[in-house]
Amino acid sequence: RCLEFSAREKGVQIMLHRHFDDLIRDETTGRIIGVTASYTPRMLPGSNTPMQSYWQNGNIDETRETIYIRARKAVILGTGGHVGNPQVRSMFYPAMREPAWGPSGQALIGEHAADASALKAGLKVGANLAGMQQNLSYGATAHSPTRLATRDAYTDMYPGHPTFPFRGSTGFAANANTFEHFIAVNQVGKRFFNDMDLMRGNAAGTNFPGGNNVPARGVDIVQGDWRNSSRDHIRKMYNRHAGLDAALQINEGSEGPEYFSGPLWAIFDEGAVERAELNLTFPWVADNGYFFSADTLEELQAKINAGHKYQRVPMTHLSDTVARWNGFVDAGADADFGRGEDAPMHKIERPKFYAASIVVVWHDSYGGLRINGKCQVIDMEGQPIPGLYAGCEASGGGNQHGLGRGLVHAYIAGTHAAAETAM
Ligand SMILES: Cc1cc2nc3c(=O)[nH]c(=O)nc-3n(C[C@H](O)[C@H](O)[C@H](O)COP(=O)(O)OP(=O)(O)OC[C@H]3O[C@@H](n4cnc5c(N)ncnc54)[C@H](O)[C@@H]3O)c2cc1C
């Protein structure tokens, strides 16, 4: 945390537990002159004391509900992206409107993280957006990690970490080979894809044409060649995972007006636990709504219905689905989704029976506020909005993942904002 340490040493003041809500604009000059922010203390489950930062120097203790902060020179939006806002996500990828799916590392980054604060506030003052379609270019953006039985499936975390109580379980790893022993079902208890391919991620055969990591691979890109924008090329640019699309599709449990696709479950029995040598003890699993066990499938289904936050409709088909699956195992072929060619199939028949949540995460945002080379936010007329800067996941269009983008934007935005004339 050298950047934070350095900033505190240099006298930067930090107001924790506060959510930036809106920009304040001088109606006469059009300049952004400040922000409004509300008190949003973050407390551990069962606690009524706000969490504390590791270092304290520079912290401002401020608990008023709403405050107005006047900018001396400019406002820089660095509030991250929109992966935690299902409504914003769904503007460009409707299937990801399901709120069961959060950002990766949610326990760590918090319930308000990546909630599109910058994008929403920017739109209110006339900002333009860029790169929203780039969210769909990378396999890691919306995907299903191979960790089951925890909401925070993208990351490892163990008891003792200050934010572990927000997730409750570490989850256990289950790659495609482990899925040999499972079936995957949707919110009504029906299979929806070749269960093993679901976890194969970007392996050949599970993508739409174009392969993985396109356009870096699978499509020839010739700089300046107009054929780069051919229909075929554009289609191949988007690294969509067919299994994920199947997981997120509307199913018979999806009800209006939102038609959520609902949670996903890996279903298995005691035989699977023995064959795959699964360790189903704490902290890998916990009684947190993301893992259930029961002596019968009916009881398992009832526990899921009662115990998972996003199980909005009753799962009703689990017993039928397992019976059908066991029939396929007897027949040696999966008539529904073609399993059986590359790995043995196993009956699900021996108590206990288990359900471990399969989670979809949206990892990071590539789209966001349109910025220019100075990181100034650009409006719908193509002009900079005076006094407003943004960077990293709050901004969009760079087609670039990760921390490098943030460091570069921070340097550029900070340098130019500091050079502004004080108001
Ligand atoms: C689990 C995980 C692993 C990753 N691994 C890598 C990696 O290995 N390499 C890599 O390059 N990238 C990685 N990334 C991506 C990288 O971390 C992000 O792209 C980058 O941190 C985004 O930076 P940012 O400044 O835009 O937003 P963030 O880092 O999300 O920072 C935004 C900050 O603003 C705060 N905030 C948000 N909204 C508000 C608001 N309304 N008011 C006040 N404060 C607010 C947040 O609490 C947060 O502190 C990973 C991301 C995750 C989640």
Q: What report would you give on this structure?
A:
By secondary structure, the chain is an alpha+beta fold. The protein folds into two domains: 2-93 and 112-138 and 366-418, FAD/NAD(P)-binding domain; 145-206 and 241-359, Succinate dehydrogenase/fumarate reductase flavoprotein, catalytic domain (Flavocytochrome C3, Chain A, domain 1), CATH 3.90.700. It has eleven helices and 17 strands. The protein has helices spanning 2-9, 86-92, 106-109, 117-124, 195-198, 231-237, 242-248, 270-276, 297-307, 318-331, 403-418; strands spanning 18-25, 32-39, 66-70, 75-77, 129-130, 142-143, 147-148, 172-173, 183-185, 264-269, 291-294, 353-358, 361-362, 368-370, 376-378, 384-390, 395-396. The strands form six sheets. Strands 9-10-12-11 form a four-stranded antiparallel sheet. A three-stranded antiparallel sheet has the order 1-2-3. β1 and β2 (32-39) form a beta hairpin. The longest helix is centred in the C-terminal third of the chain and has 16 residues, at 403-418. The model is unreliable at 202-218 (pLDDT under 50). Residues 19-20, 78-80, 104-105, 112-114, 117, 154-155, 364, 392-394, 402-404, 406 line the site of flavin-adenine dinucleotide.
